[in-house]
Specification:
Elements: H1 12-24, H2 29-47, E1 53-58, H3 62-76, E2 81-85, H4 94-102, E3 107-109, E4 119-124, H5 136-148, E5 152-155, E6 177-181, H6 186-189, H7 193-197, E7 199-203, H8 209-215, E8 219-221, E9 245-249, H9 257-268, E10 273-278, H10 283-287, E11 294-297, H11 301-307, E12 313-318, H12 326-335, E13 339-342, H13 345-348, H14 354-364, E14 367-370, H15 374-380, H16 382-385, H17 392-403, E15 406-409, E16 415-417, E17 423-425, H18 438-451, H19 456-474, H20 480-485
Parallel strand pairs: 1-2, 1-4, 2-3, 4-5, 5-6, 6-7, 8-17, 9-10, 9-12, 10-11, 12-13, 13-14, 14-15
Antiparallel strand pairs: 15-16, 16-17
Cofactor: Mg(2+); K(+)
InterPro entries: Carbohydrate_kinase_pred_CS, CARKD, Nnr, Ribokinase-like, YjeF_N_dom, YjeF_N_dom_sf
Keywords: ATP-binding, Isomerase, Kinase, Lyase, Metal-binding, Multifunctional enzyme, NAD, NADP, Nucleotide-binding, Potassium, Transferase
Length: about 500
Amino acid sequence: MHDALQDMLVTPNEMAAIDKDAADSGIDSFSLMRSAGMAVSAAALRLFPTASRFVVLCGPGNNGGDGYIAAEALAESGAQVALFSLGDPSKLRGDGAKARSACRLAVVDIGTYEPKSGDVVVDALFGAGLARDLPNSAQDVVRRVDASRIPVLAVDLPSGIDGRTGEVRGASFTAAHTVTFIAPKSGHVLMPGRALSGALEVFDIGIPARLVAARASDLRINGPAIWKQYAGGLEAGTHKYKRGHLAVLSGGPASTGAARLSAAVGLVGGAGLVTLGSPPEAMAVNASHLTAIMLKEIGSAADLGEWLQDKRVIAFVLGPGFGVGKKARDFALMLCDRALVLDADGMSSFQQAREELFEKIAASGGQVVMTPHEGEFARLFPEVAADASLSKIEKAQAAASLSHAVIVYKGPDTVVAAPSGRAVVNVNAPPWLATAGSGDVLAGIIGAHLAQGFPAFEAAAAAVWRHGEAGNRAGRSATAETLAQSIPPLT
């Protein structure tokens, strides 16, 4: 893949525009289809060398054209190939019709296919452009193939996955491997599409990078390239205040653990020093558990206002174990003009007063990051969450625009979105990150990055990625404490 396309995500509409621009520029569209089909056949032979038979299922559009080319190439290599079509192949038009004409294999109706042991299915029914339910005849084949447990190699995207949202449209193949072209699509990285795509291989079929970049939006797969300019090494003459002072605000004596966890992670994440702001009644319990973390009594808005006079305190984390209510709202509104991670109870406190928060963020010009999981997102952005037409990426972007904050929409396919529309999708997180305290760890890492001077978007993206890597390092038995011990360095 061309270096300029690394980590790029495109939507199906953007990919369609890229294909059109390529054709308009004089590139022969059939040559691109042929490159795609040959890439599929090469992947099939490489991945499934012991297949008894390759069963190529061709759809009524250009994805089917890729399949016809792949089928012919597989047959020429000496493999046994069976070819099935959805619909009448004589009705194909354009490059799809040319591909069918160039394929010398007999084709029969897809409804007659009965899976056999040793088969490998090459799924070329529908690609990333699918935005409706699969036809019933295709759904029947999906069910038969799934029941047989034979492997599936998907062309572009497993048929049945919506290329924009990653959702299943009626039914979907579960692919062992997917070959797509030019760049991943959003449906490859959003759940459940990501899980159903298997291993993803991106093949450059020859469209110039400049044409891709001209149509692609600012959407990426999350990775170090997003924040590398802010993750430089430490200077020899640095000191703790240069590395950033992070403040984490604690709840009452019965709920101090979450804030202490975020504070401890703040140090591991790179802040030069971390202070836990504690209400008077929780000072003793917090003091008994802290060593490197400093402790300051913050019981009221007046206490917080006085602390804010110290401009060396760069960033704040508010929410883990803090408690829902007026105090959380008052504190959050005071912190909107600073670098702030608003997590958990901090967000939930604004369920009935979100406009005040959003207006304050917009007016203050601070660097605010909010970190909702599915339930919190639905409480704070109910109209966005209820819009079934939107993908998770689009929901995060809408929430960021509405709130004027960077949104970390958590889950197995965490999306980080900025009010500008910029977004990344995270793909490195293992499922065992779903453990108590995991969100507190993430909040602490984001806070550490904000304290070090990262812009809010990059702070959040880097933290989500490091959080995922920590989960991989900690392994299946990960707890919040072992996650904190497993956070990788930024560089």
